[in-house]
Every structure is written in C-alpha cells, then in structure tokens.
Description:
The protein has two helices and three strands; from the N terminus they run E-E-E-H-H. By secondary structure, the chain is an alpha+beta fold. The mean pLDDT is 78. It comes from Halorientalis persicus.
Amino acid sequence: MSSREIRLIEEDDGQWSAVDVETSVVSQGETRQQALEVLDEAVALYTDDDGTAIGDEVAYLEDHGIDPAEVTDPRDLPDVMQ
C-alpha cells in the first residue's frame, strides 16, 4: 500500500481546501470532511483504474470512446471515468 499526502487549508472565508500533493488535485468544501470527500472523488476522476495519474486527459477520454469536445460537465461522464 502506498502512502498519500493530503494538505488541508482553512481559507480566510471559512471554506476548506484539500490538496492531494502527488497529483496536485485540489478540492473545496464548507467543512474539512466535505473537502476530503470531494477530493476523493476528484482524485478518482483524475487517476486511472490502477491509481496512477492520467497524464493526458484528452487521450484517456478518447481511449475510452469519449469525445472530449462533448464533455461539458464532468458529472456526465460514464462510469469508466468515475
């Protein structure tokens, strides 16, 4: 099992930011817990099935039969991206 470094930052407006150091993926939430939950989702979308970072997001989408130009909302991506 590999280790994962996450940084939590309390912003001036009371919001929380969570940063996955390895991938540089950032999320925000009203609470620390919410920021971490959103970060988990964001990292899952950013990484491939084996947990490694997707280096070329466009190529990854195309490899999975998805036209990047048609993606307007990441929540509409098929399960393969989640």
